Amino acid sequence: MTTKSEPRPTRWAAVAALSVAVASGCTVAGNAASGDGATTVVVGYQSKTINTVTAGTLLRSLGYFEKRLAELGKSEGRTYRVVWQDYETGASITAQMLAEKIDIGSMGDYPLLINGTRAQAQGADARTEFVSVTGYNLRGSLNGVVVAGDSRARTLADLKGKSVSASVGSAGHGTLVQALGKYGIDPGKGVKIENQTPSVGVSALQSGGVAGLAQFVAWPGLLVQKDGARLLYDGGDLDVPTFHGVVVPHRVAEERPKVLAAFLRAQIDATGYLHREPLKASESVAAVTGLPVETIYLYNGRGGVATFDTTMKPRLSAALAHDVPFLKSIGVLRDSIDLKSFVNDSYLRKVYGSGYDGAVASTANPAAITGTDQVCGTKVDDPARAGEVWVDGESTIRPVASPVCLLRTVQAGGRRTRAVYIPDAVTGTRWFADRMSWVEDPGAAKDDRFKPFATAEGARKYVTAHSGAKDVPYAEAVKRS
């Protein structure tokens, strides 16, 4: 039996180009048609930003938007064509949108604010609107800081005087700066921040050029799974929501409301598919992006770090207001933004139907881990403790009721585990169980004495607060479970 999930080889080289060229002016925003009479709708997305898959990679592979537009076109006597354009950053999508070359785009919370601010600065006719959410985490755990597996750093304070890679203006950068402040470290003096794209930052971390890497989903999970890096800081410790969403030019929503409605309905369709078939959805995204399916499933699977829900929750809108001062402080936002005109859920509310307010009020992950724990013989129904064991060669992933049940399932499995997932005992952040810091607490109940923590600092805090508790290697916890 092998207790440690061994990362499967994967190429992090560039995948085949996904976008299709489109002639300038042939977009809904430009209110024009192509040579064959079809009206082109251009969607800008980021294939590797897996929090946006329900408005990007997965939606494209399912063909739901094309299907909705075909139905619309039939009723209008018109033909629609969708052009998908893949970008590395939200900034590129914003630039193309302001040039009237993209009709619908998806990006993270910081890029959304930059998009809205720059559009409003160009005048009322150019303004954009944030119309739906793709994926979110209410505590901010989609962002994190990782270090090399052999790093001596155990907290962010241990990075003082060292260099850390981050993409300035990104959510990962924001997490780093705000977290350093909580440790009393001036990010401009105490830590040198290297402004690098994620891929450049990965190379720098691997070569020892930087001591840490602060990035957004899926980079922290990817590095931990693929390269044996270690999560040093969980962005969830900030307890500030982070999310991704859909943005459109106001003129598109005003001039082609039925096109926007078709997109939102298709996004709702794709979200429902992800909830019903999280593994198949993850495999679909992996096939297109080249990302390991195990990493994608960490975030997008049942009980994943990301919750996929299109509705515009008040806590997410409030998070935008919270983020504005920070982005201004680092010079990313130079102009003010009118959030009341930017955040607009009226389009989504109209297509969603009568259940919208109920969905807005709920923060439970619709893709919950359910079923029966075969080893412990108990029902899996507590999202704060439930996990999963993915045994190599099995087409389904086994649900487990608790951390101890996960350890017992691995011990009884008899085969290599492809991936193991469990939430942090205190914060609830789902992580790779075999990459977590485990603690044995003899004072806890027998079936609860082994506890997982996403970071070494989390484990240290627990040990300090509980007499008799001690660190224990994952493999030992498996054997003694």
TrEMBL record:
Put simply, this protein is called ABC transporter substrate-binding protein
Keyword annotations for this protein, in alphabetical order, are: Signal
* Coiled-coil region list: none
InterPro entries to which the protein is assigned, alphabetical: SsuA/THI5 (IPR015168)
Q: Where is the SsuA/THI5-like domain?
A: 138-281
Matching entries from SUPFAM superfamilies are given as: Periplasmic binding protein-like II
- The residues the entry assigns to the signal sequence are 1-29
Q: Specify one Pfam family.
A: NMT1
